[in-house]
Design brief:
Elements (H helix, E strand, L loop, with lengths): L1 E8 L9 E2 L9 E2 L1 E2 L3 E3 L1 E4 L5 E12 L3 E11 L12 E7 L3 E3 L13 H8 L17 H9 L2 E9 L7 E3 L6 E3 L1
Antiparallel strand pairs: 1-5, 1-8, 2-3, 4-7, 6-7, 7-11, 8-9, 8-10, 11-12, 11-13
């Protein structure tokens, strides 16, 4: 069984930026990346009719405006070792291209969902499909609401059936898309 984990990293150093450090010692740290950060895989057919294994993060959101990259790690889950604090083996990872997180006022608007996400939804994946929006003519209240909407990340990974322990993961950056 496999699971995919998502973390947010600095675009140049690739250091984990998932948690925001507290300003003083007495405060707790908060999460910068919120939403579903660990998901299982989903067998489906893409928009070109090709069968694949997809990991969909339906509601990722970042609290702090800046430039980031997402890091995806494929984990092998040992079903015989399902206890609290268990460590599972790391299979592979990939980091996507840098992207910008905006403040509510600067947010340029939602992009429409891709054909891939629409096809995954038609096959039973519980994800929201977005039509897109224009924030330039909208009111400030609409801009704040739109900026809080979460993004969907879709990761395609493929299993090499010739060798049970060999896995090919996110061969190209194009296979990881932010919706």
């Amino acid at each position: 069984m496999f699971a995919m984990q998502c973390t947010i990293v600095d675009p140049s150093s690739l250091k984990d930026q998932t948690q925001v450090r507290p300003v003083c010692v007495e405060m707790y740290s908060t999460l910068r990346l919120i939403g579903t950060v660990i998901v299982s895989s989903y067998q489906a057919v893409d928009e070109h009719g090709v069968t694949g294994t997809f990991s969909v993060f339906p509601d990722l959101s970042c609290r702090t405006p800046s430039c980031y990259r997402l890091c995806f790690k494929l984990l092998r889950i040992d079903i015989h070792n399902m206890r609290q604090g268990a460590v599972h083996s790391f299979v592979a990872s990939t980091v996507i291209n840098a992207f910008e997180v905006y403040t509510a006022r600067e947010f340029p608007g939602m992009k429409p969902s891709s054909a891939l996400l629409k096809v995954l939804r038609q096959q039973g994946m519980n994800v929201s499909v977005k039509k897109g929006s224009k924030s330039h003519g909208a009111s400030a209240k609409r801009e704040r609401t739109t900026a809080r909407q979460s993004q969907t990340a879709v990761v395609l990974w493929q299993t090499n059936s010739a060798a049970a322990n060999s896995h090919c993961f996110a061969k190209t950056q194009a296979e990881v898309s932010l919706e």
